[in-house]
């Protein structure tokens, strides 16, 4: 890895660790209206991101055509509001591990889908790493009780996780990470308000108590503002395929932080799953191959120079 890809990997990893740790905050919002909470989270994040959008933001937004604005609306609806709604709906009839397992398959889907959309073949090293990550995520979370509805909504959550990366690819370059995060948060806030009025009527929003306010502030300022910008900065540097590998760190971070609030335990299965996720990230990102290449040897190949080894990554 060069300095750019190393920085991108660290940014993507940090973003996913923040998201995984946010599950603790989610447990404090169980009694708060879903749509209202999403509106406050994304609305506050939008206000915090506006000063960070960068110079020429208005000009860049004016150059977007109708197709890209539609993509931004889909990104917010599918990858943000829809994803969270699908997870919540799945957990009504399924244990939380079930949607978590499906979301853990996102690296495999992205590793196949993004290259096909670009008219190229999937990279085997990324696909192998994604499979390791998916198996590791399953091992960390296990499997739980569910029914048909739980599985269906878990599949919707997987679609949302994939959409959060794939739908952003064509708009990341013209907007940049900060402006893209700003726009999708603003759009998601509007969509959440509309969903709240339609589903919950007048009770879609209320004043949060002190605990709920703290959880919402954490999700808005840290998980959304910092996490989203870091995620898209990482994706800009290493691409959607490799960045999505790091989503396997989400259940790992959740498993590590759960014991801190007494909502779970960290045992042998979590340790093994965490090791598999880390191995998958190392393989898929090219870090493992680079390490052997620097020693003059790549596993399963004849000795070759590091330059020739890296050409195949």
UniProtKB/TrEMBL annotation:
SUPFAM superfamilies linked: Multidrug resistance efflux transporter EmrE
Keyword entries, A-Z: Cell membrane, Membrane, Transmembrane, Transmembrane helix
Ranges for domain EamA: 7-139, 163-283
Location in or out of the cell: Cell membrane
Primary location class: membrane
Keyword set includes Electron transport: no
TM region(s), chain numbering: 40-57, 69-90, 96-116, 125-144, 150-172, 179-199, 211-231, 243-262, 268-293
Pfam families in the cross-refs: EamA
Membrane topology, from the record: Multi-pass membrane protein
Cited InterPro entries: Diverse_Substrate_Transporter (IPR051258), EamA_dom (IPR000620), EmrE-like (IPR037185)
Family that this chain belongs to: Belongs to the EamA transporter family.
The name this protein goes by in its record: DMT family transporter
């Amino acid at each position: 890895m060069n300095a750019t890809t190393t920085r991108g990997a660290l940014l993507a990893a940090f973003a996913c660790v923040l998201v995984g740790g946010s599950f603790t905050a989610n447990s404090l919002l169980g009694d708060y209206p879903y749509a209202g909470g999403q509106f406050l989270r994304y609305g506050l994040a939008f206000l915090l991101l506006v000063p960070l959008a960068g110079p020429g933001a208005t000009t860049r937004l004016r150059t977007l055509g109708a197709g890209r604005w539609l993509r931004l609306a889909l990104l917010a609806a599918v990858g943000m509001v829809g994803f969270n709604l699908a997870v919540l709906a799945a957990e009504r009839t399924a244990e939380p591990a079930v949607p978590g397992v499906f979301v853990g398959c996102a690296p495999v889907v992205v590793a196949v889908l993004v290259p096909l959309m670009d008219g190229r073949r999937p990279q085997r090293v990324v696909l192998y790493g994604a499979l390791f990550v998916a198996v590791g995520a399953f091992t960390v979370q296990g499997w739980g009780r569910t029914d048909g509805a739980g599985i269906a909504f878990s599949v919707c959550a997987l679609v949302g996780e994939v959409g959060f990366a794939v739908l952003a690819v064509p708009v990341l370059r013209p907007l940049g990470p900060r402006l893209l995060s700003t726009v999708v948060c603003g759009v998601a806030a509007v969509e959440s308000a509309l969903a709240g009025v339609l589903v919950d009527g007048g009770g879609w929003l209320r004043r949060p108590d002190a605990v709920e306010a703290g959880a919402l502030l954490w999700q808005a300022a840290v998980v959304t503002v910092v996490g989203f910008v870091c995620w898209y900065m990482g994706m800009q540097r290493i691409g959607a395929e490799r960045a999505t590998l790091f989503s396997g760190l989400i259940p790992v971070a959740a498993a590590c932080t759960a014991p801190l609030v007494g909502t779970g335990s960290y045992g042998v299965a979590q340790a093994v799953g965490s090791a598999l996720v880390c191995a998958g990230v190392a393989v898929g990102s090219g870090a493992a191959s680079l390490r052997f290449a620097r020693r003059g040897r790549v596993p399963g190949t004849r000795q070759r120079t590091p330059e020739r080894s890296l050409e195949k990554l």
